[in-house]
Amino acid sequence: MKIYFLIFIFTLNFAAFGNSKTTFGDTTKMGLTRSKKAVLTAVTYTGTVDKGNRKMELVVAIIDEAISIGAPTYNEGNRAACYKIYEGAAYKILHKYGKKCTETADILETALEKSYGNYSITDKAWIMRMAFDKIEGVQTQTQ
Q1: Residues 6 or more apart from 81 whose CB is under 8 A from it?
Q2: Do residues 101 and 67 both lie within one domain?
Q3: Are 31 and 55 members of one domain?
Q4: In terms of Cα–Cα distance, which of 136, 138, 30, 127 is closest to 70?
């Protein structure tokens, strides 16, 4: 099993980067400039959840990325994919920052637990979006 996983990772990396001369840190060969990469993580957190915690800017960057992908997906009619994008972002935040951002973790765990209830996929996507908005300190807009 481990051998297959390593082969998969090697194959995935080789296919993604095109040749063995490309390194993981070389964003130019992947089509990103270093300044573009920096913009993705340059977020100012102004909310009140876990206020004063330096990790919140990283949390907000993950949330903003999920929303920038999930919202258009939702608007195209693919509610399930939107929910899965939001769910994945929540788990990523919990894994990376859950112990350091306890209020954020509580909000996300509550939203995830609620979303596993007997709700429509549309409702599940909105449950997650409202949790993200609460963390960011913004009003949820439904239109």
Answers
A1: 70, 73
A2: yes
A3: no
A4: 127
Number of domains in the chain: 2
The answer to whether residue 143 is domain-embedded is no
Q: What is the distance between the alpha carbons of residues 68 and 9, in angstroms, rounded to a whole number? A: 27
pLDDT tens-digit profile, the chain (143 residues): 444 433 444 433 444 444 433 333 333 333 433 333 333 444 455 566 666 678 888 999 999 999 999 999 999 999 999 999 999 999 999 999 999 999 999 999 999 999 999 999 999 999 999 999 999 988 887 75
User: Is-contact 29 18, C-beta < 8 A?
Assistant: yes
d(C-alpha 104, C-alpha 74), whole Å = 24
Gap between the Cα atoms of 94 and 132, Å rounded: 13
pTM of the model: 0.67
CB atoms within 10 A of CB 2: 6
